[in-house]
């Protein structure tokens, strides 16, 4: 199975993001987050980053 994110301004043969089934769930989660960012029109986060960008109070 493959997870693919397309964008209307790109050709169908050139998806924005493509992930394979063997990639970890964090990579799938990051891709979903970036797909939401695409819809909202805000910059993407690094797909390879493990950080959520949220800071916790200590």
From TrEMBL:
SUPFAM superfamilies per UniProt? B12-dependent dehydatase associated subunit (SSF52968)
Q: According to its UniProt record, what is one Pfam family this protein matches?
A: Dehydratase_MU
What protein name does the entry list? Propanediol dehydratase
Supply the source organism for this entry: Klebsiella michiganensis
Organism lineage reads as: Bacteria, Pseudomonadati, Pseudomonadota, Gammaproteobacteria, Enterobacterales
């Amino acid at each position: 199975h493959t997870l693919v994110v397309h964008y209307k301004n790109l050709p169908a043969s050139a998806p924005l993001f493509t992930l394979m089934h063997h990639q970890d769930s964090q990579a799938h989660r990051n891709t979903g987050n970036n797909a939401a960012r695409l819809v909202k029109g805000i910059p993407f986060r690094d797909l390879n980053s493990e950080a959520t960008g949220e800071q916790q109070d200590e």
